[in-house]
Design brief:
The structure is a single chain. The chain contains ten helices and eleven strands. Strand 9, helix 9 and strand 10 form a beta-alpha-beta unit. The strands form two sheets. The protein has a six-stranded parallel beta sheet with strand order 7-6-8-9-10-11, with helices on one face. It is elongated. By secondary structure, the chain is α/β, with parallel strands linked by helices. The chain starts with a strand and ends in a 14-residue tail after the last helix. The protein folds into two domains: 114 residues, NAD(P)-binding Rossmann-like Domain (Rossmann fold, 3-Layer(aba) Sandwich), CATH 3.40.50.720; 181 residues, NAD(P)-binding Rossmann-like Domain (Rossmann fold, 3-Layer(aba) Sandwich).
Length: 312
């Protein structure tokens, strides 16, 4: 029997479908997980806080496969897991549909001034003109990140007749390579960040990049807060060097109460809710885990498998 230590929150979706070679061990608390972790060959250690997950990962000395519903696991001791030869599958793509839809919503809401429409309704004021007159059709988008989320963003924006230029390592087919996009920033109306958080992407958007953007440019970040140098973004927004920033993620999270991003009219903060705006996350993750269990038992590759050296 292979011992699998898993959160009891996922139990109703997983337990009836477990194969007979798996011995499940369910935890409700961090303390229970820490007690069970040394026995785990398969672990699904998801909790709401990062620090306990780090502790549990260290304690799981016999772990062979770690699964998670979270896409970003860069906070875990990936070097330790790599040294132990642990296979890690994450939640990449689980929330891709809802995040791509969220990006479209944010862009349309900004283009049409919808925030002002909602405020007018709250005031019971009948507007005589639209507060937003921008059309998405015909505008150019620089898309940094063409993974599961970025690919869905691209097809949805193209349906609005937008010209989407992705950045990918291989280039080709109208794409830019990683070393080419900065010199072309001034050609785009929208810049969308959909990259993983790594040493390479940290602060990839800062003062120089913001200064190179068009005055009507809108920055959309649904990646991680630290891919933008936040103090530089605040300065650019305050000086109106770019038109706006639509931020589902910030650095830090939660954003402190007195932070200027809360009060800037040209910033929208949506509290890292894009991936939560749906009800299918747990079901999709459970389905993927059960499929991967069968592959694992047959000695076949599981997916999506993290590159522990790269951090995503």
């Amino acid at each position: 029997m292979t011992k699998a230590v898993m959160s009891a929150l996922i139990r109703p979706l997983v337990e009836p479908r477990l194969p007979d070679w798996v011995e499940p061990m369910w935890f409700m608390t961090k303390e229970q997980a820490l007690e069970m972790a040394p026995e785990a060959e398969i672990g699904w250690f998801d909790l709401n806080e990062k620090e306990p997950m780090i502790e549990i990962a260290h304690a799981a000395a016999n772990l062979k496969w770690l699964n998670s519903i979270y896409a970003g696991l860069d906070f875990l001791p990936l070097d330790v897991l790599q040294e132990r030869g642990v296979t890690v599958t994450n939640g990449v793509g689980i929330n891709a549909i809802t995040i791509a839809e969220y990006v479209v919503m944010l862009m349309l809401a900004h283009a049409k001034g919808y925030r002002e429409v909602v405020r007018a309704q709250e005031r019971r004021e009948w507007l005589l003109d639209s507060p937003g007159k921008r059309e998405l059709a015909g505008e150019r988008v620089l898309l940094l990140g063409l993974g599961a989320i970025g690919s869905l963003i691209k097809t949805r924006l193209e349906a609005f007749d937008m010209k989407v230029i992705p950045v990918r390592r291989s280039g080709g087919e109208g794409a830019l390579r990683p070393g080419e996009w900065r010199e072309k920033l001034g050609e785009f109306d929208w810049v969308i960040l959909a990259v993983p958080s790594t040493d390479e992407t940290r602060h990839m958007i800062g003062e120089i990049e913001l200064a190179a953007m068009r005055p009507n440019a809108v920055l959309v970040n649904i990646a991680r807060g630290d891919v933008v140098k936040q103090e530089d973004l605040v300065a650019a927004l305050e000086a109106k060097k770019i038109e706006a920033a639509l931020l589902d993620v910030t650095d830090p999270e939660p954003l402190p109460e007195g932070h200027p991003l809360w009060s800037l009219d040209n910033a929208q903060v949506t509290m890292h809710l894009s991936g939560r705006a749906q009800t299918k996350m747990f079901q999709r993750s459970a389905d993927r885990f059960i499929d991967n269990l069968e592959r694992w038992n047959r000695g076949e590759p599981v997916s999506p498998k993290m590159d522990l050296a790269a951090g995503y």
